[in-house]
Design brief:
The chain is an all-alpha fold and about 270 residues long. It is elongated, with a radius of gyration of 29 Å.
Length: about 270
């Protein structure tokens, strides 16, 4: 007569057990292959049918789930929406940039960085903000002073930030790309658009690999909604921020296939 264990898990090896289970010491090491198989069988028979895991809820509070909002963007005001041909042209250019970065990544990442370039640690969010924006923007100084600093012959990158040089972004793996992107988008949620931010967002999107992870999916949608929100508050079509905001919305919606966020020209 078969045991309950054999009914659920049919015996695969033709091993005869001459000794009874009481003669086996489950705490000691098996002396031969037969004892090992018998120990495994006895241990399995002693397992409860239902096991309840002891879970600490505190460990699940951080990043337990990914909340990807499906809310759309603010519609572009009349006259602010780019044409479909413009959007298609930007997507084509962006695709070419991505292909070039992927093709030449090894070349650029092998180049030696300048002595003044000290890239922050992957977990140093504040350090990345200072690295990308510089102290002038990071500390909240007016954009006019930032532009004046950028116009000076000798740039002080500690003040105006480091541009996303290929020698820098080519060194970033996907974890770092996503972390920096999330950091900058989080800063953007509470601050106005700035040229340094736009350059870095474009470069990070160009390095972001497809298919997107859930975290990346949520992040770029957040970026597009923020751009559309700022665009809806612009007073004139001549605002210098408009092309950059339109471009970022276009890339998220058209290239990364978030079509519900796309601008629909009339």
């Amino acid at each position: 007569m078969k045991s309950d264990v054999e009914e659920l898990m049919p015996r695969l090896l033709p091993v005869e057990f001459g000794a009874s289970g009481e003669e086996l010491d489950l705490k000691g090491p098996p002396r031969n292959p037969r004892e090992y198989l018998r120990q495994v069988q006895l241990e399995a028979s002693q397992c409860p049918e239902v096991v309840v895991a002891q879970i600490d809820p505190k460990k699940l509070k951080k990043k337990q789930t990914i909340n990807a909002s499906v809310a759309g963007c603010h519609a572009a005001p009349v006259g602010f929406c780019p044409s479909l041909s413009w959007q298609q042209h930007q997507v084509s250019n962006f695709s070419d940039v991505r292909q070039s970065i992927a093709k030449n990544r090894n070349h650029w990442s092998s180049n030696t960085l300048d002595d003044n370039v000290e890239m922050p640690d992957i977990t140093d969010e504040e350090g990345w903000k200072k690295f990308c924006f510089g102290e002038t923007l990071y500390l909240g100084t007016s954009s006019s002073r930032t532009e004046a600093a950028e116009a000076e012959p000798a740039l002080d990158h500690s003040k105006v930030g480091f541009p996303p040089f290929l020698t820098i972004v080519s060194r970033l793996n996907q974890s770092t790309v996503l972390m920096v992107l999330e950091t900058l988008v989080g800063w953007f949620e509470e601050n106005d658009f700035a040229p340094q931010l736009g350059r870095w967002l474009y470069a990070l999107l160009a390095c972001l690999e497809k298919p997107l992870l859930p975290e990346a999916h949520s992040c770029i949608r957040q970026l597009a909604r923020r751009c559309a929100q700022l665009r809806s508050a612009l007073e004139t079509e001549e605002d210098e921020k408009l092309p950059a905001l339109n471009l970022l919305v276009c890339l998220v919606a058209r290239y990364f296939e978030q079509s519900d966020l796309a601008d629909q020209p009339e």
